[in-house]
Design a protein that fits this description.
Elements: E1 6-8, E2 11-15, H1 21-30, H2 43-55, E3 60-66, E4 74-85, E5 90-97, H3 99-102, H4 105-126, E6 131-137, H5 141-150, E7 153-164, E8 167-177, H6 178-192
Parallel strand pairs: 5-6
Antiparallel strand pairs: 1-2, 2-3, 3-4, 4-5, 6-8, 7-8
Helix pairs in contact: 1-2, 4-5, 4-6
Length: 194
């Protein structure tokens, strides 16, 4: 079992392991409409993805686990900071939960807020980035509400980023800056920490 890197609110971020690839592939394929993924993934695609993330210093990817379970913490999703641009001091937040958890609004909200907190710790306190951002398809109203509840601010719209059933969907860009992090960190800890 891998050591947790961050723990918060009964969730933890742990190193990505090859043994997780099949479950993550299933989650990605089941939720393809919310991802920038354009085709169903194969085991080979997952192997290539794992190889890339293992050697790319412009992204850090974590397994998300429930840390309150005894013995072997349960894998519940994956996340990371991708597209890190050290010169511009920014990175993109990536997040996907087990598709069953993603359908439970209360659980999804707690998972997402907790993971955002740990990713901000990583991005702002370990990597010393100035800004973290997200891109979310505009039809993901609940997901966007959670981002804004956390403290990310809407920064713009990207037109026609996804086609689903011949309908074009825009994306919303949200960001959070390192300058805002200290206050958001205090607020989220008091709201969520158990």
């Amino acid at each position: 079992m891998s050591e947790a890197i961050y723990n918060f609110n009964n969730r933890c971020l742990a190193p990505m392991e090859k043994e997780y690839l099949s479950r993550i592939k299933d989650w990605r394929n089941a939720q393809i409409e919310v991802l920038r993924q354009t085709k169903l993934l194969t085991d080979h695609d997952q192997e290539e993805w794992f190889r890339r993330i293992s050697h790319d210093d412009r992204q850090v990817v974590f397994a998300i686990k429930e840390s309150d379970t005894r013995n072997d913490p349960l894998l519940i999703g994956y996340c990371g900071i991708t597209n890190i641009d050290f010169q511009e001091s920014k990175g993109e937040i990536s997040f996907l939960m087990d598709d069953k958890r993603a359908k439970n609004d209360k659980l999804y909200r707690e998972d997402f807020l907790s993971v955002l907190y740990m990713l901000c710790l990583d991005g702002f306190e370990r990597f010393k980035l100035d800004k973290l951002y997200t891109e979310t398809y505009i039809f993901r109203v609940y997901h966007i509400a959670i981002l804004e509840k956390f403290g990310l601010q809407k920064n713009g719209i990207l037109k026609d980023r996804k086609i689903i059933n011949e309908r074009h969907w825009d994306s919303v860009i949200h960001f959070i800056s390192n300058d805002e992090w200290a206050e958001i960190k205090r607020r989220i800890r008091s709201e969520l920490e158990k």
